[in-house]
From TrEMBL:
Pfam families: PALP. Keywords: Lyase, Pyridoxal phosphate. The keyword Lyase applies. Residues 2-306 form the Tryptophan synthase beta chain-like PALP domain. Its cofactor is pyridoxal 5'-phosphate. InterPro entries: Ser/Thr_Dehydratase (IPR050147), TrpB-like_PALP (IPR001926), TrpB-like_PALP_sf (IPR036052). GO terms for molecular function: L-serine ammonia-lyase activity; threonine deaminase activity. One of its GO terms (biological process) is L-threonine catabolic process. The keyword NADP does not apply. This is Threonine synthase.
């Protein structure tokens, strides 16, 4: 609808070499129309609504789903109402508002499992009574729309890379990781799909690594990684099943590691992603430390899921960037000489 999908797959210029990896690639989902992979989901969901003649969309979001739905609903002439999780970045909220969506923040939503369950209960009841979808980017709620996300894996299969050995995907509720596994399985590709989560929202990764069959909810999500604060299980059980079937594993990473890789992606690769977009790379680092990826002869893809412009608050808070220096025009030549020596 808006040109979603067919995002670039680019080879690492510096990080791969620093990690000893000869073949590291980044799938740049941050270059979708609204800045995240959620556009693949929204394109299908809104197309289904248009086909059904529905003119009112009610949804929940931590940011990216809401931005995607807001944009696609605007294009389709559908009224969009988003109930946003507690603590969602203001950049994402402003993006939704600019598309014309009606935004309501819900205290404790997305952080407290009890509050989250109550919110979903209320919205599920309303949507069922009015024969509307509840657009949550999870197979539990929207399995047909999530097939749009599966196209990501199909694009990897159809890329010029002969064989991708490992795909690292970030996870909150697990929808993206599950979509990638489904796409890999349906395409007949021979790729291991690994699930990576921040330590403060470890619902899937440790059970996957510990050979458990079921994901587990956490009492409260404590990670600062926006978009991955999903304390409930959602698609976690099937993520474990599919990742294990493909030979994948689970990786738990610290918020600090994620922020570090976010900055390195910007300074060493020219890729400006939001923190969630760096989670896969943090997981790859852990895999290399565990000797679970062979750096010399295996090809790895890390999913870069969202744009850094989505969360400028994080940039201000975590990287202590200084104000640019103001100089007189007479000093420009001298500044060039000085800076050229660095």
């Amino acid at each position: 609808m808006l040109g979603e999908g067919n995002t670039p797959l680019v080879k690492s210029r510096r990080i791969g070499k620093a990690l000893g990896l000869e073949n590291l690639y980044f799938k740049l989902e941050n270059l979708n129309p609204t800045g995240s992979y959620k556009d693949r989901f929204a394109a299908v969901l809104v197309s289904e609504m248009v086909a059904a003649g529905q003119k009112f969309c009610i949804a929940t979001s931590s940011g990216n789903t809401g931005a995607a739905l807001s944009a696609y609903c605007a294009a389709a002439g559908i009224t969009c109402v988003i109930f946003v999780v507690d603590g969602a970045p203001s950049s994402k909220i402003r993006q939704m508002q600019l598309y014309g969506a009606h935004i309501r923040l819900v205290k404790g939503f997305g952080l407290d499992p009890l509050v989250t369950a109550k919110v979903f209960g209320i919205l599920e009841k309303y949507c069922a009574a009015n024969k509307l979808p509840l657009p949550v980017s999870a197979y539990r709620y929207c399995p047909s729309a999530m097939r749009g996300v599966e196209t990501l894996a199909l694009e990897l299969k159809d890329s010029t890379i002969a064989n991708i050995d490992h795909i690292f995907a970030p996870a909150g509720g697990g929808g993206l990781t599950l979509a990638v596994t489904k796409g890999v399985i349906s395409s007949g590709a021979n790729s291991k799909v690994h699930c990576v989560q921040p330590r403060g929202n470890d619902t899937i990764t440790s059970p996957l690594r510990d050979h458990a069959s079921m994901a587990r909810a956490v009492a409260a999500s404590t990670t600062r990684i926006s978009g991955l604060q999903v304390p409930s299980v959602l698609d976690g059980n099937q993520v474990i099943e599919n990742c294990r079937a493909l030979g994948g594993n689970g990786y738990v990473v610290s918020d600090e590691s994620v922020f570090s890789w976010q900055k390195r992606l910007a300074t060493q690769e020219g890729i400006f992603c939001e923190p969630a977009g760096a989670v896969a790379l943090a997981g790859l680092e852990d895999a290399l430390l565990r000797n679970e990826v062979s750096p010399r002869n295996e090809t790895v893809v890390c999913l870069i899921t969202g744009s850094g412009f989505k969360d400028m608050e994080n940039v201000h808070q975590n990287f202590q960037l200084t104000e640019p220096q103001t100089i007189e025009e007479t000093k420009i030549s001298r500044e060039i000489e000085v800076l050229n020596q660095h």
